[in-house]
Design goal:
Layout lengths: L18 H5 L15 H12 L6 H14 L3 H17 L1 H8 L4 H27 L7 H15 L4 H13 L20 H7 L4 H12 L5 H24 L6 H12 L3 H10 L15 H8 L7 H6 L8 H6 L5 H17 L9 H10 L1 H6 L12
Helix pairs in contact: 3-17, 4-6, 5-6, 6-7, 6-12, 7-11
């Protein structure tokens, strides 16, 4: 067993950057001329780093990814993912129509279509919107964030971006910051937590969002409430007037059922890819590339989850944590480069199957989800 080499560690006197800087610490770059941080800044940082004693591994990997992104068309960079989101919205129309059918088979097909569409929109869509991966325009980025996160996802933009982007990504697996502890509910038995409690996500999510409004301005809080109500009542109105539902309780139950169809794998994915991996102290954290490669895990390609949740949340999670502003399709495109680079440099490229992780969490639930995780001073050893 070997301690974390000093060159792997962050400087104790340097405060970890937050927000956009935290996500691309030391590797600000752009696709063509569209990077919002500015091409001149990227060029200046690149020159300064290359003039140093040695170029960091992160910068070396960044240059490889930057070259690929610069050679990539808009269609591959953003178009494919936008088309998938557009298709999800288009599938809502036949879903509403099928839900009004007297045929049991057609009704079930309508439920499935609506559930899949909702998962694509509220997981893939909100995730891409929170990272600004749908557009280079700051104004459109804010608009899409409000639409996907608040209208469709029934959550608050500020809390989503602060919790996911500024904390989870900037401080991945750092105790007390981005250690995924928000997903833990120690009072619940393992079977309840893993298979039953997630079904309450459609109800819990807006309630948590309302509780978080206390930390926001009145104007922003009012906008969040109105946007959440807009999303809720649009679906309710369409079920009444398009699908022909007449009973309010049946309508609400249908809404919650469709919204919760993928909530079990959603919770699983969020805990499988970080919890149980090395955790770090805020004052003794490794440098970014070592932190991400040791604290992040990929699941194998899954036809259903990859297309509903997005590649960056399933089979390309390592790539996503190294380059958070890449779209899902771009994460998939750079995956061979990232995996080969990490293996050549002797860094871990962690992968495990969905059912293997499920077995691990089921049999070690107390250790992983109840007790506080130990701080990893020995990299690779939990």
């Amino acid at each position: 067993m070997h301690q974390v080499p000093e060159e792997w560690r962050e400087d104790d006197n340097v405060k970890p950057p937050e927000g956009r800087d935290a996500l691309f610490k030391g590797n600000t770059w752009m696709s063509g001329n569209s990077r919002r941080d500015g091409g001149k800044v990227a060029e200046k940082q690149n020159v300064e780093l290359m003039d140093g004693d040695r170029q960091s591994l992160m910068m070396e990997l960044t240059r490889l990814i930057q070259n690929m992104v610069n050679e990539t068309s808009w269609w591959e960079n953003r178009g494919i993912d936008i088309s998938i989101l557009a298709l999800a919205f288009l599938l809502l129309l036949p879903a509403f129509l099928l839900l009004g059918s007297s045929s049991t088979l057609a009704f079930v097909l309508g439920l499935v279509l609506m559930g899949v569409s909702h998962a694509v929109i509220t997981v893939k869509g909100t995730h891409l919107a929170s990272h600004g991966s749908l557009t280079d325009s700051p104004a459109w980025t804010n608009l899409w964030a409000v639409f996907f996160i608040e209208v469709c996802g029934s959550f608050t933009v500020k809390a989503a971006v602060s919790g996911h982007v500024k904390l989870h990504h900037a401080h991945t697996n750092v105790i007390g910051l981005g250690d995924s502890s928000t997903w833990k509910i120690p009072c619940l038995p393992r079977s309840v937590y893993l298979f039953i409690a997630p079904l309450g996500v459609p109800v819990i999510t807006p309630l948590v969002a309302l509780g978080l409004l206390r930390d926001q301005s009145v104007g922003r809080g009012l906008r969040t409430v109105l946007m959440m109500l807009l999303g809720f009542f649009c679906q309710y109105w369409l079920l009444i007037h398009v699908s022909g539902f007449q009973c309010p309780y049946r309508t609400i139950f249908c809404m919650l059922f469709c919204r919760g169809m993928f909530s079990v794998p959603f919770i699983h994915v969020n805990i499988f890819q970080h919890i149980g991996l090395p955790m770090f102290s805020p004052t003794r954290r490794p440098k970014q590339i070592y932190q991400m490669t040791h604290g992040v895990l990929n699941l194998p390609r899954n036809s259903l989850l990859d297309w509903t949740f997005g590649h960056s949340l399933i089979s390309c999670h390592v790539e996503h944590h190294l380059f958070p502003f890449l779209s899902d399709n771009m994460c998939l495109k750079v995956k061979p480069i990232v995996s080969q680079f990490l293996k050549e440099k002797g860094l871990p490229y962690q992968e495990d199957s969905y059912f293997s992780r499920l077995q691990l969490f089921f049999h070690k639930y107390q250790e992983l989800m109840v007790f506080a995780p130990p701080i990893t001073e020995l990299v690779g050893v939990q």
